[in-house]
Design brief:
Order of helices and strands: HHHHHHHEEEHEEEHEHHHEHHHHH
Helix content: 55-70%
Shape: flat
Strand content: 5-15%
Structural class: alpha/beta
Strand order of the largest sheet: 1-8-4-6-2
Number of strands: 8
């Protein structure tokens, strides 16, 4: 089985809503059988003893309650997803696919149902699983508590700031992982995607978005065959059938090498978070863009999203991209070069569309200027040219949009809150 197949199956399990609940259901059945055996071996206290009719009634009620609560969880999830995709972005659904609390809640509910049913089936005229009945009551109480926690969290996650914070956290974590990967001696970043005279060019057998690379496998392959590999497309790019996904220079290998290398590149219908920090940035920008659309007209949401975009850009802006790009290990006989995005590309992704769609909003213009001024003071010196360029474009946007407005001066001010923050005092800040 290729790495690509294993990756797809793992992604399918991670993003499925059925895998963990099925495990919960199986555990419920096994626990029910185990508790029944314990009941046969132990003499339960009088407080825990039930008549057959009482035990049957209690367990029947618990089974019905667990089924009803499971339906409520599914209903709440559907409504939340509908509201989130309509208000924020359709790509937000990926957060819900992976939500561990949703899966844990469903697993507890389904497990309680199967456990109760398993215990119920063992009740006879001369045997009552007293411990099982009591434990079923405890489980349904935990299920109700899990539902309340899930409902509370679901409502809270409908807030734009909460969604942006979740996505920003994912972006930082993924970028940290990417930097650790690029800091290895046998891997380097590249910005150019044009190479000539390769030994082998591996084409994609199908079209799709690049979701991840098996970096460990590629490095091992390169060392084994004494070759240098280049990945000409960054994670997140959509490649067409037959388009080159791996370029090989030098080395000795057989005819099956192309298929082997292609099996280390995972393609899918859409992007994922695994090795793609800019996908999270894309989601935040989409939320801000929808908030700035004429149908929604909610610039305050865009300002809240800019808070978290600025935090992610400040985090990324402290990275020495050039060191990761030019680093070479003189003792290494094999190198994997991965084409990646530049700092300028990430800044463009995070700010350009929001500046364009928010050009008529005073608070978006003011928050953007504050964000850029903050970045100019905190990012590495070599990254400041991109921030200066964004400031120049922001000045041009404000001048073109507000030149005939009485609020031209206000649109050009700096305000961390968009409107309502402290007035910026250049002399004092210097």
């Amino acid at each position: 089985m290729s790495w690509r197949t294993r990756f797809r199956r793992r992604e399918s399990v991670v993003e499925s809503l059925w895998a963990i609940p099925i495990v919960g259901a199986l555990l419920g059945v096994m626990l029910g059988a185990a508790v029944s055996i314990v009941d046969e071996l132990l003499t339960t206290p009088l407080l825990w003893q039930y008549s057959p009719s009482t035990a049957s009634a209690v367990l029947t009620s618990i089974v019905g309650a667990a089924a009803a609560l499971t339906g409520f969880v599914v209903t709440v999830t559907v409504l939340v997803v509908q509201m989130a995709t309509g208000t924020f972005s359709a790509r937000i659904m990926r957060l819900w696919y992976r939500d561990p609390l949703l899966k844990a809640t469903l697993a507890i509910l389904v497990g309680t149902l199967t456990f109760s049913f398993s215990v119920l089936s063992r009740i006879g005229e001369d045997f009552v699983p007293n411990v099982g009945v009591t434990l079923a009551g405890v489980l349904i109480s935990l299920s109700l508590l899990a539902f309340i926690v899930f409902f509370d969290r679901s409502v809270r996650r409908l807030r734009p700031a909460a969604v942006a914070a979740d996505v920003a956290s994912t972006a930082r974590a993924t970028f940290e992982q990417t930097v650790r990967l690029a800091d290895r001696a046998d891997i380097r970043w590249e910005y150019v995607s044009v190479w000539t005279d390769p030994t082998l060019a591996v084409g994609a057998s199908r079209g799709g978005a690049i979701q991840a690379f098996d970096v460990e496998g590629l490095v091992a392959w390169a060392r084994r065959h004494g070759a240098e590999l280049v990945l000409p497309h960054p994670v997140g790019d959509f490649v067409h059938s037959g388009e080159t996904v791996v370029i090989v220079f030098g080395g000795e290998f057989g005819e099956g090498s192309a298929a082997e290398l292609e099996g280390m590149v995972a393609l899918g219908d859409e992007r994922t978070f695994d090795q793609d920090p800019t996908f999270a940035m894309r989601m935040m920008v989409d939320i801000a863009n929808k908030a700035l659309s004429p149908a929604v007209n909610d610039p305050t949401t865009a300002v809240q999203v800019l808070d978290h975009i600025g935090e992610v850009l400040a985090f990324i802006g402290k990275t020495d991209f050039e060191a990761l790009r030019t680093k070479v290990d003189s003792t290494s006989t094999a190198v994997v070069a991965i084409v990646t995005r530049r700092w300028e590309d990430i800044v463009t992704l995070g700010l350009t569309e929001i500046r364009e769609f928010g050009a008529t909003s005073v608070q978006v213009m003011r928050r953007l200027r504050a964000l850029l001024e903050e970045l100019q003071a905190t990012v590495r010196p070599e990254h400041r040219a991109a921030i200066d360029e964004e400031l120049r474009r922001l000045d041009a946007t404000v001048a073109a949009t507000w030149r005939d407005s009485t609020d031209l001066d206000r649109a050009g001010e700096i305000d961390r809150q968009g409107i309502g923050g402290m007035k910026h005092d250049p002399e004092r800040s210097s």
